[in-house]
Amino acid sequence: MSEIFSPPAAQLPTDKELVLKVIPMPADTNGNGDIFGGWVMAQVDLAGSVLPARYMQGRMATVAVNEFIFKQPVRVGDILSFFSSVTRVGRTSITVQVEVYAERFADQGRYVKVTEARLTYVAIDSEGRPRPVPPMPKAGG
Questions:
Q1: Nearest partner of 68 among 137, 124, 114, judged by Cα
Q2: Domains of the chain
Q3: What is the spatial order of strands in the sheet that 79-89 belongs to?
Q4: Which pTM was predicted?
Q5: 3-state secondary structure labels for all residues of the chain
Q6: C-alpha separations of 74 from 3, 40, 54, 108, 115 in Å
Q7: Per-residue pLDDT tens over the stretch 8-37
C-alpha cells in the first residue's frame, strides 16, 4: 500500500467562531473518490452566511466569492469544522473569512486545514434590491 501524503497538523483558530460542523458522505464524492469541490463550496457558503445573518435582520444573498483556496482534499468521513470571522462591514454588505479544518476519520484529534475562502453577502429587501446593513452592536455594550 502506498503512503498517503500527510500535511503537518494545524492548530484550530482562536480568533474565529466555529459556525458549522459536517461529515461528508460517499454521495458527495467526485470521480477521484475525494469530496466534490462544489459540495465543499456549498458548505462554505452556508458557514459564511451564519455571522452576517445575525446582523442583517432579514434577507441576504451571496454576491461574491472573493477568494477560494482548496489546500488539501476532503475525504469521506472527515469531520469538517468551519470557522468564520467578519472582516469588513460596508453600507449594504458584510465580508467574511471562512477556514475549514478536517479531522481525518482515521486520525481523530489531528486537524488539517483543507480550505479557506472570503465571501461577501449583501442585505436585500423583499424585491431583491440592496438595503443598508443595520448598525453592528458595539463590543462590550
A1: 114
A2: 17-123 (3.10.129.10)
A3: 17-22, 79-89, 93-103, 111-123, 60-70
A4: 0.89
A5: CCCCCCCCCECCCCCCEEEEEECCCHHHECCCCCECHHHHHHHHHHHHHHHHHHHHCCCEEEEEEEEEEECCCCCCCCEEEEEEEEEEECCCEEEEEEEEEEECCCCCCCEEEEEEEEEEEEEECCCCCECCCCCCCCCCC
A6: 17, 8, 29, 15, 9
A7: 788 999 999 999 999 999 999 999 999 999
